[in-house]
Amino acid sequence: MVESLLLAVTRVSTMSQYKPLTNATGFFFQRDEKLFLVTCRHVVLDEANQHHPERLEIELHVDPENVAVTTQFSVPLYRDQKPLWRQGVDSAGMIDVAAIELERAALPEPLLFHPFTPAHLVARLDDIEIGTPVLIAGFPLGFHDTLHHLPVARQAVIASSFGMRFQGNGYFLTDARMHRGTSGGPVVARMTAAHSGRSALAWSLLGVHAARMDVDNRDVQQDERLDLNCAWYADIILTLTEDPPAGKASDRPSPAVHSASGNIKP
Fold first, then answer.
1. What is the pTM of this model?
2. Is-contact 158 1, C-beta < 8 A?
3. Which of 160, 167, 186, 206 is disulfide-compatible with 173, CB 3.0–4.6 A?
């Protein structure tokens, strides 16, 4: 029996033609009949570091009887030179989250996975307090169970007031030792008993892990890293996975939509 959280997360490889570039993390999010891959925006495009992949490769489990059986699935990032991912902006600027709709007809069958849904988002922000234990699942430095192709999880705690935009940005902080390769991983908390029976994936989706935080004036000889990280509030995923407005083609990318973080305190 494989824990459902591990099957909600997938290893992401960024590719330029057939050349691998970087490793990252993503997770599945299902809304109605549509299935999305959610990861960080800097995974699909990072102008500052001249990171311009053309496609992603994700790993899918394809045998319900044997979790060690997987296949690689290619996810294009552009069509007719236009980006296929959806990204968001808010009052503070770009949100480091991207959602890419997966073509369900092209996915292999059978498929062993457990996607998050809107029901996994936190309805009451004050249910999550500072110090709340959370997990961040992913592939730190690409490390994972190479036999069963499953991610690992790092323990963390909420390190800033949940529901408030830290320093005016649409993210909160976690306290955990994190590494490259975990960008795009889900930040989750165990559901309460009242809600856990409603889903095989009994975890609340709080955010999307993006990057480590540090201070500019840290003395690298005397001061250790803060081991704090930013995680974008998961409600942006609802905005990114909305159906396009009437009159727009359903496959048209939404390169800039506003955050759904109206319930996040300034």
1. 0.90
2. no
3. 160
Residues with pLDDT less than 70, the chain: 193-199, 214-223, 245-266
pLDDT at 8 (0 to 100): 98
Distances in Å between the Cα of 217 and the Cα atoms of 77, 159, 221 are 37, 21, 12
DSSP the chain: ---GGGGSEEEEEEEETTEEEEEEEEEEEEETTEEEEEE-HHHH-BGGGTB--SEEEEEEE--TT-TT-EEEEEEESEETTEE-SEEEEETTEEEEEEEEEE-GGGS-SS-B---B-GGGB-S-GGGS-TT-EEEEEE-GGG-SBTTTTB-EEEEEEE-S-TTB-GGGSSEEEEE----TT-TTPEEEEEPPHHHHTT-SS-EEEEEEEEEEE--TT--TTT-----EEEEEETTHHHHHTSPPPTTS-TT---S-EE--GGGSB-
The domain locations on the chain are 4-259
Q: At residue 259, what is the residue type?
A: S
Q: Which two tokens stand for residue 181?
A: 């390769």
The residue type at 197: G
Among residues 127, 142, 239, the alpha carbon closest in space to that of 189 is found at 127
Count of other CB atoms within 10 angstroms of residue 200: 9
Q: Give the list of residues 6+ apart from residue 48 with CB closer than 8 angstroms, or none.
A: none
